[in-house]
Amino acid sequence: RSLATHSFTPSTLNSVNADDIAHFSKILSPSSILSTLPPVSLPPSDIAGFNNDWMNKYHGKSTTVLRPRTTQEVSDIVKWCSERRIGIVPQGGNTGLVGGGVPVQDELILSLGNMNKVRSFDPVSGILVADAGCILESLSEYLAPHSHIVPLDLGAKGSCQIGGNVSTNAGGLRLLRYGSLHGSVLGLEVVLPDGTIMNQLSSPRKDNTGYDLKQLFIGAEGTLGIVTGVSILAAPAPQATNNVVLALPRFENVLPLFVEVKKQLSEILSAFEFFDRRSYELSVRHGQGRALSGEEIEGAECFVLVETSGGKREHDEEKLNTLLESLLEADQPLINTGVVAQSPAQFASIWAIREGITESISKEGKAYKYDISIPLAKFKEVVDMTRDHLQSKGLLRDDAVRHVVGYGHVGDGNLHLNVVAADYTPEIQAALEPFVYELVASHKGSVSAEHGIGLMKTHALHYSKDSVNIEWMRKIKQLFDPRGIMNPGKVLE
Ligand code: FAD
Ligand code: 2HG
Ligand code: ZN
């Protein structure tokens, strides 16, 4: 059951038919065409995974999934779809959280999964050029022997693709250290909505030759073209990493703690991640990382994960230990305890608690996700106000809303407010929206910090962008995609 509150109907678009399949057969090998239409005639269940999103909240009705192997094949498909006016949904790992990667109706799904080769890596400059369909984790594995890392990391790394990351401008767990993809992506290869291939992959690191067109595709969520290749600046792998989970008696301590941690760890600080007590409990309940001891979590209202990445283990350990001592010995300690990883396994376990929250929530129930930018000082207030609001509506009960939790990237001012319910229902939806968006707007925040607009937030864009900005977004969309075939109904209504 789709709960999309949007009435978008791509009425001017055509459905894929058997003649189209015959044409695609001339472009692609048979194994690259999955379709319920003749002559392929697969059962719908064979393509259900492409029609349903990661949360199982948004459901498309596509009949056909194409899995090209080359940029030329993508171009030939898009050219045909442009002439025939068939809507196309580019799809990467399908881990997006705003319904952007699945069709609204029966648009064709163009899945990048077969374009999964590293094209080149230069260990001197650190420039990696890869097909868009490369899975993020496989790029990390490729770079490890070259002592480099992808400047991006997120919990979905085992499934998401670099092209999907670029198209959502994914933030994730390393943004604090390495900045956004707007900085680290050096060039893109894109198939434009008329099938033209725009290649900027050979861009050097410094390139001020006029308008920087690639920036438009970073975060465009597939509405302006299909990213087929990515050139990205990999970072030198840190020689030493460590992490610690800090238990805080009250949320109000997070802000002064962040200031203190930044001051003391300075150049070796690589992550500062926040999760409230309930998020922690859900994560360990569903087997994500080893639970802390009762003593360690006693009296803790929330937790902060601090990661260090530096050049010399002894130096970094000394800094981390000095930080912990000073925090614990202060007159009014900001933390109750700090558990430092003593082994690679413990390091991974501490990260698993934080990275596993999203998955544990999906095991606990259906998630309403609000990925918002607000002032750090307001994180708790917004979570509490949302919970109180649901309570006042009588919705805080086991068969409706089970939990309201907050976690996220404190260093970037990005809160993940998650409302975990027994089911997606119109009643809960109406209680949450526009309530949450108005709250965000009252703090001059963003209704989408890092996940994008997709289908979920097209109607909420105006809470964060004024009419002049939206108008120019529309003009850009019209310029690139006058026939409206590229990911219709996403980002802009
Ligand atoms: P998809 O879900 O397939 O697509 C996402 C959007 O990009 C869609 O609009 C799609 O049409 C478009 N798209 C995909 N590939 C292309 C392409 N090649 N060309 C053009 N358009 C394309 N996000 C964060 O920012 N930070 C996080 O920390 C984070 N953690 C996550 C953890 C989990 C467990 C999950 C499930 C998701 C998380 N996300 C996070 C959401 C995030 O948006 C995605 O994980 C990721 O960036 C999407 O990549 P994907 O390949 O799965 O793209
Ligand atoms: C994270 O930071 C992701 O873990 C997912 O961005 C957030 O599930 C969410 O709301
Ligand atoms: Zn996040």
UniProtKB/TrEMBL annotation:
Catalytic activities: (R)-lactate + 2 Fe(III)-[cytochrome c] = 2 Fe(II)-[cytochrome c] + pyruvate + 2 H(+)
A molecular function (GO) term: D-lactate dehydrogenase (cytochrome) activity
Pfam families hit by this protein: FAD-oxidase_C, FAD_binding_4
Domain FAD-binding PCMH-type residue range list: 58-237
InterPro entries on file: FAD-bd_oxidored_4_C (IPR004113), FAD-bd_PCMH (IPR016166), FAD-bd_PCMH-like_sf (IPR036318), FAD-bd_PCMH_sub1 (IPR016167), FAD-bd_PCMH_sub2 (IPR016169), FAD-linked_Oxase-like_C (IPR016164), FAD-oxidored/transferase_4 (IPR051264), Oxid_FAD_bind_N (IPR006094)
Keywords: FAD, Flavoprotein, Oxidoreductase
Cofactor(s) in the UniProt record: FAD
GO CC annotation: mitochondrion
Keyword Cytoplasm in annotation: no
Highest taxon in the source lineage: Eukaryota
Family label: Belongs to the FAD-binding oxidoreductase/transferase type 4 family.
Name the UniProt record assigns to this protein: FAD-binding PCMH-type domain-containing protein
Annotated organism of origin: Meripilus lineatus
